Amino acid sequence: MKLGFSAAEEDFRTEVADWLATQMHGDFADIRGVRGLTEKAGRRKEWEQRLGEERWSVIGWPEQWGGRDASLVQQVIFAEEYARSGAPGRIGHMGVELAGPTILTFGTQEQKERFLPDIAKGNTIWCQGYSEPGAGSDLGNVRTRARQDEETGEWVVDGQKIWTSLAQISDWIFVVARSEEGSKGPKGLTFLLMPIDQPGIDIRPIRQINGDAEFNETFFDGARTGAENLVSTPGNGWQVAMGLLAFERGVSTLGQQMGFRIELDEVIAAARENGAAKDPLIRQRIADAEIGLYLMRYGALRMLSNTDHSRPDGAALTYKMQWASWRRNLGELAMDVAGLDGLTTSEDDYSFDPLPNLFLFSRADTIYGGTNQVQRNIISERALGLPREPRGAG
User: Where in the numbering of this chain does the Acyl-CoA oxidase/dehydrogenase middle domain appear (predicted)?
Assistant: First the structure.
């Protein structure tokens, strides 16, 4: 496991940091530090396009598709410096980190030529159609249906997805749907790419307690997509979706941790300013958070060193639950540091200060992207080889 960087790699870090600083203190200074996923969405799409112009958007992709053929270490460095610069969260991350790598791995040549250049250039925004009411993030219980029109060959989708992040500003959605009548669990699922702007798709934002509406309900009522937008083969959607998990637990984890570093530093600064740091229990919890952050970094580096990135290994399967639980605890620590001041706001529309906002956002961390309960089942069955949990009917 590599824990250090060479002189050439540090030179690359300087190049990245300098370019990002120029952008964040220049043309895009107005979106520096923006955290809410729907805030200033138009400007952030312009930022995605600037990244694409300079080939910084997908540096790990082949040059043929708009990347830089960057090494794994260079991708880690870029992710860390991106977070350190205060650059906004990537509204194109579903395409850059999930849809794009999935198409690169499982897609046809025609799909690569059609979709990858626009993802790399920041011209298309993607969202994910996985979770469903009553099923959560357990893909084995997906009920959304897909059938192929015998006359046109198009795929027709009916059903509902929920917690569809950024669907209201997205152009395309990748959907896992059940295509084999009577199938259960992971069998009979199909992975489809679908245009959002069509009569058969209805998107309804879900207003959160912090005033944002990054999540949505997405309804499919006879929604259609061409036969050429099937990824892999009918019924092989589970394998594609599981392959996608490896990308979700990929290089971006190091950039994510840099974001956690910034949040923890804000908590520490607030504790020093308001006197909460004098409480020995608060100091101990801050120390625990610091230790946990270092452990996550070393674990992520081990994960990235060991995996072949085509499917998640044991370390990758545990990482989501590790960071989600850590950040949820950090959110609780933030509220205890903020004290009574964290319970009120002088702004309209529930616009809170950073610490209570961290608490509100972190409550969902152990739910979206695979609840802790589902993650424990995945770890036990796929990493440890334990017997499968009995599945109910339906």
Answer: 127-220
